[in-house]
Specification:
Elements lengths: L2 H18 L7 E3 L8 E4 L4 E4 L1 H6 L1 H22 L8 H10 L18 E6 L6 E4 L1 H8 L14 E8 L1
Parallel strand pairs: 1-3
Antiparallel strand pairs: 2-3, 4-5, 4-6
Helix pairs in contact: 1-3, 3-4
Protein name: SprT protein
Pfam family, one: SprT-like
């Protein structure tokens, strides 16, 4: 894990400790996150996961905003418990008051989408084409059935597969 990220996590904890005048249990930090999320806080496990690809591509903002965003979730959990809203007023207080940052719910990093296979299913409707994911297609193979909402016919696989 990059030392700058680890140092920023520690800095966020120290800022929160100075603000609230109490000690916080440090989280386990990993770089095992893929896809569209920049970071995830696992509250009950006291664990942070970060996306290495988005970190590399957005390093400065990631260190400033994303790391603070995720640490703020853990701080809010340790202070207020599980009954608070994920991006509610307690979390927002920490983002604004402790870190001096806007309480943005989502990042705006460019995310490269990977190519996915779609399995084409049809019904009796003229425009009745349904692209299924590989996961849904596998469920059909195990006996699950899907129906068209308009004509009520069971969707059937055409044998066609596309990569999007």
């Amino acid at each position: 894990m990059p030392e700058h990220l680890h140092a920023r996590v520690e800095s966020c904890y120290q800022q929160a400790e100075a603000f609230f005048k109490q000690r916080f249990v440090r989280a386990e930090v990993s770089f095992k996150l893929r896809g569209q999320k920049a970071g995830v806080a696992h509250l009950t496990e006291n664990k942070l996961r970060f996306n290495p690809q988005l970190y590399r591509e957005n390093r400065e903002d990631f260190l400033r905003q994303t790391v603070a965003h995720e640490v703020a979730h853990l701080i809010a959990h340790q202070l207020f418990g599980l009954k608070i809203q994920p991006h509610g007023e307690e979390w927002q207080l920490i983002m604004r008051g402790v870190y001096g940052l806007p309480p943005n719910r989502c990042h705006s990093y460019a995310v490269k989408r990977r190519k996915v296979s779609r399995f084409i299913y049809r019904c009796n409707c003229p425009e009745g084409e349904f692209p299924f994911s590989a996961q849904r297609h596998a469920l059909v193979g195990k006996g699950r059935r899907y129906f068209c909402r308009r004509c009520k016919v069971t969707l059937s696989f055409t044998g066609e597969q596309r990569v999007e």
